[in-house]
Specification:
Length: 286
């Protein structure tokens, strides 16, 4: 009988994936249980504490939208921090931009980084070889509070887990305060904000808190099939111009064409469309 992985992330709803062969990794690090396996439909998958983190089939819909959208609108970003992101899919996308001089990836679990280097080369091999990448095995909340982080980054991408366990520190007012302090003037931060169909409170809570600390903030959408529930909400905050204006979209379109960057999900049309929200999601926006 074929082995099946089942994820029950939401009350009353679950998804299952048929494995293609034996699991590649099943172990417990200091912080969490780590599983990596190949599947029939979704490619290679990493699961932390039985919650799907990444699949090679649809990672682009997540990593590209957190990364390219703010970078193309910014246009001059040089220093980027990634909170979490131990699979390096986001780092790989950020390093495609020629203007970027430094990408600092801060993940608390070094074992995740090691295992993803060994098993996810399809999406991160170039990033590991890039001298602009700096990997810090540390608590990102603590790292953001260091003096050397103040006013350092043009973009901070919070590839945070759901707000449970150690991930709770990456939500809430103190975290957002530290993110703001670490941004340069005119910089942006992007965050995953859950699947609104099953986690509607995440949008409302996050946007209320972001509005307390940032002069500009908002929401846009992507669709990552393995993050079950339809739309995934990505929130953003900034200290300069808002994202998603006609001028910003026009600027991003020109920058994308000039860059010659190859993508699987992101393009300027998606950039323009992702700020359009269904009515039921609009009602979640405070």
């Amino acid at each position: 009988m074929q082995k099946v992985f089942k994820e029950r992330l939401h009350k009353g709803y679950a998804q299952s994936m048929e494995l293609a062969g034996e699991p590649l990794v099943e172990e417990k690090s200091r912080y969490q249980r780590i599983k990596i396996f190949d599947t029939v439909a979704n490619g290679r998958v990493m699961v932390l504490d039985d919650i799907v983190q990444i699949t090679t089939r649809d990672e682009s819909a997540y990593a590209e939208m957190l990364t390219h959208l703010p970078l193309f609108e910014h246009g001059r970003a040089e220093r980027i921090m990634i909170v979490g992101g131990g699979d390096l899919s986001i780092a790989d996308e950020a390093l495609k931009h020629r203007s970027v001089k430094e990408v600092v990836l801060v993940d608390i679990d070094g074992r995740v980084v090691e295992l993803c280097k060994a098993h996810f080369g399809e999406i991160n091999a170039k990033a590991f070889k890039d001298k602009r990448l700096k990997i810090e095995i540390a608590d990102a909340f603590e790292y953001l509070g260091r003096p050397e982080s103040k006013g350092r980054f043009d973009l901070i991408i919070a590839d945070r887990p759901d707000p449970v366990g150690p991930g709770k520190a990456l939500f809430g007012e103190t975290f957002y305060d530290r993110v703001k302090a670490a941004l340069k003037q005119g910089g942006y931060a992007t965050f995953q904000t859950g699947v609104p169909f099953y986690q509607p409170w995440e949008i409302t809570d996050a946007l209320e808190e972001l509005a307390e600390f940032f002069p500009q903030s908002g929401l846009y959408l992507t669709v990552v099939p393995s993050y079950i529930g339809g739309f995934m909400a990505l929130s953003w905050a900034g200290t300069g111009k808002p994202l998603g204006t006609p001028a910003g979209i026009k600027r991003a379109r020109a920058a994308y064409a000039k860059s010659k960057i190859k993508t699987d999900y992101y393009n300027p049309d998606i950039h323009a469309a992702c700020f359009a929200l269904p009515e039921w999601i609009k009602r979640l926006v405070p």
